[in-house]
Specification:
This is Adhesin. 15% of the residues lie in helices and 52% in strands. The chain has three domains: 31 residues; 123 residues, no CATH class; 149 residues, no CATH class.
């Protein structure tokens, strides 16, 4: 039988002390870390910095490798400005930068890693905003744009994009996040890898191109105008719902506006219109409203003769498709 090892009382006491100390160390290290972290957090406060933008700005870019949310809106001001609100170390002013010259400016944040809950608000003059181009490049925060502009380019690595207003050209793209569009546009080109594309009360005069890899597309057009160059909607995985302008109502509206315009294109737009709808899903149903079946591209319709064709191409690899008129 194995030999019995006798441990003296003093040795037992020493071992108990060592075990107790080790247990205390295991407990106290995270507590000490938490206390230190909490103490550092006590030094955090709300920070704010505001900078003026050139009154002549026409090309405004945002270079944001941050999670800051951005809000751009117009007012009756004649002094454009940008303001940054954030939570950060007390006594360290956020390094909001406005670089550029003449009519071009770029907004960025230097040394942003210690900042939290960052929010950028840009105020632009409504009187001149229709001559402006907005260009967003990168970042992981939400982008919210309100107002009338010449061109909007909103490209984000991740985050929601919301546009409510007007622009001759609108381009949006995001790796993941919801896109919501409302207003009047010449062209719309909107893409997302993962996320929904949602358009409500859309007035589009030229064309719409909406593409998502994974997510739904929901486009609701008003009856005020028709995208004369057509509509393209494509989803790899996701359903597509489209409510087209009623051609009779849109033509009536466009014809009423044509005499007030000297633009030959406006007069052409008032001609008789005819949809050419091509819709298919590899794995999913296609529901074309009864009053739209005459526009089905798979049918040879004599009713299209002599009319201006509005192409509508809708496709999904996996997902249902529903198309109707307002």
């Amino acid at each position: 039988m194995p030999a019995t090892v006798h441990v003296s009382e003093s040795t037992r006491t020493s071992m108990r002390v060592i075990i107790t100390i080790a247990a205390l160390v295991v407990l106290l290290v995270p507590i000490a870390f938490s206390v230190a972290h909490g103490a550092s957090r006590l030094n955090y406060t709300n920070l704010e910095v505001t900078k003026s933008l050139p009154a002549s700005v026409k090309d405004l870019s945002f270079d944001l490798d941050t999670s800051a949310s951005v809000v751009v809106k117009t007012t009756d001001t004649d002094e454009p400005s940008v303001r940054l609100n954030a939570t950060g170390p007390r006594g360290e002013a956020p390094k909001l930068q406005v670089r550029g010259s003449g009519s071009s400016s770029t907004v960025s944040i230097d040394e942003h890693r210690k900042l939290e809950n960052s929010r950028i608000e840009v105020i632009l003059p409504a009187a001149s905003s229709k001559e402006m181009k907005l260009d967003f490049n990168g970042g992981f925060g939400a982008i919210d744009i309100v107002g009338d502009y010449q061109e909007i380019v909103a490209k984000t690595d991740g985050g929601a994009v919301d546009v409510n207003g007007s622009a001759d050209t609108l381009q949006t793209s995001t790796d993941y996040g919801m896109t919501h569009l409302t207003g009047t546009f010449g062209t719309i080109e909107s893409r997302t890898d993962v996320g929904t594309l949602d358009g409500s009360n859309l007035n589009v005069s030229d064309h719409v191109d909406a593409v998502t890899s994974t997510g739904t597309i929901d486009l609701d057009f008003s009856n005020d105008m028709v995208p004369m160059s057509g509509i393209v909607a494509k989803a790899d995985e996701g359903s597509i719902d489209i409510r087209l302008p009623r051609l009779d109502l849109a033509q009536e509206k466009m014809a009423a506006e044509a005499p007030a315009s000297k633009d030959d294109d406006s007069a052409d737009d008032a001609k008789d219109l005819f949809y050419r709808i091509n819709a298919n899903s590899n794995q999913g149903s296609v529901d074309l409203a009864k009053d739209l079946k005459k526009y089905d591209a798979s049918k040879d319709s004599k009713a299209a003769d002599g009319k201006t064709i509005i192409p509508v191409a809708v496709s999904a690899d996996t997902g249902t498709i529903s198309i109707e008129q307002n």
